[in-house]
Amino acid sequence: QVQLVESGGGLVQAGGSLRLSCAASGRTISLNAMGWYRQAPGKQRELVATVSHLGTTSYADSVKGRFTISRDNAKNTLYLQMSSLKPEDTAVYYCNFVVRPGSWGQGTQVTVSS
Fold it and tell me: Which of 9, 14, 38, 107 could link 94 by a cystine bridge, Cβ 3.0 to 4.6 Å?
Protein backbone atom coordinates (compact mmCIF):
# COMPACT_ATOMS: atom_id res chain seq x y z
CA GLN A 1 0.00 0.00 0.00
CA VAL A 2 1.32 3.42 -0.91
CA GLN A 3 1.85 6.15 1.67
CA LEU A 4 1.57 9.77 0.55
CA VAL A 5 3.15 12.61 2.52
CA GLU A 6 2.44 16.19 1.52
CA SER A 7 4.64 19.13 2.46
CA GLY A 8 5.45 22.70 1.48
CA GLY A 9 2.38 24.55 2.66
CA GLY A 10 2.43 27.72 4.71
CA LEU A 11 1.17 31.25 5.12
CA VAL A 12 1.64 33.55 2.16
CA GLN A 13 0.29 36.91 1.08
CA ALA A 14 -2.02 37.22 -1.89
CA GLY A 15 0.00 37.22 -5.07
CA GLY A 16 2.69 35.02 -3.58
CA SER A 17 3.89 31.56 -4.52
CA LEU A 18 4.34 28.18 -2.90
CA ARG A 19 5.60 24.81 -4.07
CA LEU A 20 3.97 21.72 -2.65
CA SER A 21 5.55 18.28 -2.67
CA CYS A 22 4.03 14.83 -2.28
CA ALA A 23 6.42 12.00 -1.51
CA ALA A 24 5.13 8.51 -2.18
CA SER A 25 6.49 5.38 -0.57
CA GLY A 26 5.54 1.74 -0.53
CA ARG A 27 5.31 1.37 -4.29
CA THR A 28 5.91 3.35 -7.41
CA ILE A 29 3.30 5.84 -8.59
CA SER A 30 4.94 6.33 -11.98
CA LEU A 31 2.30 4.30 -13.84
CA ASN A 32 -0.65 6.12 -12.28
CA ALA A 33 -2.44 9.37 -12.97
CA MET A 34 -1.97 11.53 -9.90
CA GLY A 35 -3.76 14.60 -8.68
CA TRP A 36 -3.71 17.42 -6.19
CA TYR A 37 -6.90 17.93 -4.25
CA ARG A 38 -7.86 20.62 -1.77
CA GLN A 39 -10.46 21.06 0.92
CA ALA A 40 -11.40 24.46 2.25
CA PRO A 41 -13.22 24.86 5.58
CA GLY A 42 -16.84 23.89 5.26
CA LYS A 43 -16.42 22.72 1.66
CA GLN A 44 -16.06 19.40 -0.09
CA ARG A 45 -12.70 18.18 -1.26
CA GLU A 46 -12.09 19.14 -4.89
CA LEU A 47 -9.63 18.02 -7.53
CA VAL A 48 -7.58 20.95 -8.78
CA ALA A 49 -4.84 19.45 -10.96
CA THR A 50 -3.97 16.11 -12.52
CA VAL A 51 -1.01 14.62 -14.34
CA SER A 52 -1.16 11.38 -16.31
CA HIS A 53 1.55 8.74 -16.26
CA LEU A 54 2.69 10.23 -19.59
CA GLY A 55 2.83 13.77 -18.21
CA THR A 56 -0.40 15.16 -19.64
CA THR A 57 -1.84 17.76 -17.29
CA SER A 58 -5.26 19.20 -16.59
CA TYR A 59 -6.50 21.90 -14.23
CA ALA A 60 -9.66 23.15 -12.64
CA ASP A 61 -10.76 26.46 -14.12
CA SER A 62 -10.18 28.15 -10.77
CA VAL A 63 -6.42 27.47 -10.87
CA LYS A 64 -5.70 27.32 -14.60
CA GLY A 65 -2.81 29.56 -15.54
CA ARG A 66 -1.66 29.90 -11.93
CA PHE A 67 -0.86 26.34 -10.80
CA THR A 68 1.49 23.85 -12.43
CA ILE A 69 1.49 20.16 -11.58
CA SER A 70 4.53 18.01 -12.30
CA ARG A 71 6.05 14.70 -11.34
CA ASP A 72 9.50 13.24 -10.86
CA ASN A 73 9.13 9.51 -11.35
CA ALA A 74 12.73 8.85 -10.34
CA LYS A 75 11.96 10.38 -6.94
CA ASN A 76 8.42 9.00 -6.78
CA THR A 77 7.28 12.54 -6.02
CA LEU A 78 4.52 14.83 -7.18
CA TYR A 79 4.71 18.63 -7.14
CA LEU A 80 2.34 21.59 -7.34
CA GLN A 81 3.80 25.00 -8.13
CA MET A 82 1.29 27.64 -7.10
CA SER A 83 1.64 31.25 -8.19
CA SER A 84 -0.53 34.38 -8.01
CA LEU A 85 -2.18 32.90 -4.95
CA LYS A 86 -5.56 34.22 -3.87
CA PRO A 87 -7.31 34.09 -0.49
CA GLU A 88 -9.78 31.62 -1.99
CA ASP A 89 -6.90 29.18 -2.51
CA THR A 90 -6.75 28.75 1.27
CA ALA A 91 -7.28 25.06 2.00
CA VAL A 92 -5.63 21.84 3.04
CA TYR A 93 -3.97 20.33 -0.01
CA TYR A 94 -3.70 16.60 -0.59
CA CYS A 95 -2.26 14.37 -3.27
CA ASN A 96 -3.76 11.06 -4.33
CA PHE A 97 -4.52 8.84 -7.26
CA VAL A 98 -7.03 10.18 -9.76
CA VAL A 99 -8.65 6.81 -10.34
CA ARG A 100 -9.72 5.14 -7.10
CA PRO A 101 -8.03 7.45 -4.57
CA GLY A 102 -6.50 5.51 -1.72
CA SER A 103 -5.92 6.47 1.88
CA TRP A 104 -5.50 10.19 2.41
CA GLY A 105 -2.37 11.68 3.94
CA GLN A 106 -2.38 14.45 6.50
CA GLY A 107 -2.31 17.11 3.81
CA THR A 108 -0.51 20.43 3.95
CA GLN A 109 -2.19 23.68 4.97
CA VAL A 110 -2.03 26.62 2.58
CA THR A 111 -3.23 29.94 3.93
CA VAL A 112 -3.34 33.01 1.70
CA SER A 113 -3.83 36.34 3.41
CA SER A 114 -5.37 39.32 1.67
Answer: 107
> Secondary structure of the chain in the HEC alphabet?
CCEEEEECCEEEECCCCEEEEEEEECCCCCCCCEEEEEECCCCCCEEEEEECCCCCEEECCCCCCCEEEEEECCCCEEEEEECCCCHHHCEEEEEEECCCCCCCCCCEEEEEEC
List the beta bridge partners of residue 38: 46, 93
**What per-residue confidence (pLDDT) applies to 110?**
98
Q: What is the pLDDT of residue 1?
A: 87
Q: Are 93 and 110 in contact (CB under 8 A)?
A: yes
Parallel, antiparallel or unpaired: strands 10-13 and 108-113? parallel
| Phi-psi category of residue 65: left, alpha or beta, with phi > 0 → left and psi -120 to 50 → alpha | left
Q: Mean pLDDT per 10-residue run, the chain (114 residues)?
A: 96 98 95 97 97 97 98 97 98 97 95 97
Say what the pLDDT of residue 3 is. Answer: 95
